[in-house]
Design goal:
By secondary structure, this protein is of the alpha/beta class. Helices cover about 55% and strands about 10% of the residues. It has helices spanning about 5-15, 20-35, 75-95, 110, 135-145, 165-175, 180-195, 205-220, 220-250, 250-270, 280-300, 305-320; strands spanning about 40, 50-55, 60-65, 120-130, 155-165.
């Protein structure tokens, strides 16, 4: 399999993000590419319709991470895209976005505090997490050209233009650095860890796994061991499902993460060589804690997600590890 270009895999990851997560990822990419990139905080009275500025305040960016996008039909995605960017542009044009058909003047007090004197926008990029339909291009540009002459154009040149971009368009245009890829990879893992996915093919032979649980039950509380067995099995399946999805859709991320897990596997096998049923639970707890710390620093992952990932990896090792503590 040929290597996937960094910008292609980056686009795939961006397309999985929604809401604020998408906006944060896009502004991070812009900051990596524009030394003078200026993000615009929403406090205290909104962002004025813009999420960021670059090229000496002449290029603006509006971001929109449509939420629950997998549940929406293409027409619904297109409508949400049009409605959101029309509202943003109306604010920049200084019209009341709540009355889009009446063009009621509405001074943008936020942007008056953002733009330096004698600077105006020449171009605005409208970046959305799903741009698969060409039906939004004509209507939005036609609307923008018709409404612009009625604006005082305080913050944009009369000849200002707009471009709609999705994840693939913006990553094609900008440079994707390794450090940005790593941060985005962390966001991708956090999202996947919070959305358990079952593997296409679950392990068919659980005899070795069940034998280990039976040994534990013989020296411990059988009810507690059964609960432990069920939890391990579910976490094991979630881990396999996540790795399968990574391999299918994000092969470079899968390669890096799998390499880390394999290195850890070798370490844990050595630690398990002297494990017994009586001390296994303690060994697993120590291993899971150490692994969470390592994932937190090496991938890196937020601590809560690192703990969740460590629990899955531990379950996978219990299910697949060839060390027999009987």
């Amino acid at each position: 399999m040929s290597a996937v270009p960094p910008h292609v895999e980056c686009a795939r990851r961006l397309a999985l993000l929604e809401g604020d997560d998408f906006e944060v990822a896009i502004t991070g990419l812009l900051a990596n590419n524009h030394q003078d990139f200026q993000s615009i905080p929403a406090a205290p009275q909104g962002d004025g319709g813009l999420d960021g500025l670059a090229e000496n305040f002449t290029v603006g960016y509006c971001c929109y991470g449509i939420e629950n996008i997998d549940t929406l039909a293409p027409k619904a995605v297109a409508k949400k895209t049009l409605d959101k960017f029309k509202a943003d542009l109306m604010r920049i044009l200084e019209f009341n976005p709540k009355k889009p058909k009446k063009l009621i003047p509405h001074p943008n007090t936020t942007l008056s505090k953002v733009f330096p004197a004698k600077t105006k926008l020449k171009h605005i990029y409208l970046v959305v997490n799903s741009f698969k339909s060409n039906t939004v291009i004509g209507p939005l540009n036609t609307w923008f050209a018709a409404i612009k002459p009625n604006s005082p154009c305080t913050y944009m040149e009369p000849a200002c233009t707009i471009t709609i971009e999705g994840p693939h368009e913006i990553t094609n245009r900008l440079t994707v650095t390794p450090s940005y890829q790593a941060r985005l990879e962390s966001s991708l893992l956090s999202k996947m860890l919070n959305q358990p996915t079952a593997p296409t093919t679950a392990p068919s032979d659980l005899s070795g796994f069940d034998d280990k649980m039976n040994v534990l039950a013989s020296v411990s509380n059988p009810v507690r061991v059964q609960a432990l067995r069920n939890n391990f099995h579910q976490q094991w399946l979630s881990q396999l499902g996540m790795l399968e999805e990574l391999n299918n859709n994000h092969p470079q991320a899968h390669k890096r993460i799998f390499a880390t897990i394999e290195a850890i596997r070798e370490e844990v096998i050595v630690k398990f060589l002297s494990a017994t049923p009586q001390n296994l639970a303690d060994r697993l707890m120590v291993f899971e804690t150490d692994l969470a710390d390592r994932l937190h620093t090496e991938i890196p992952l937020p601590k809560q997600d690192a703990q969740r990932f460590a629990r899955r990896v531990t379950a996978q090792l219990v299910g697949e590890c060839d060390i027999d503590w009987r």
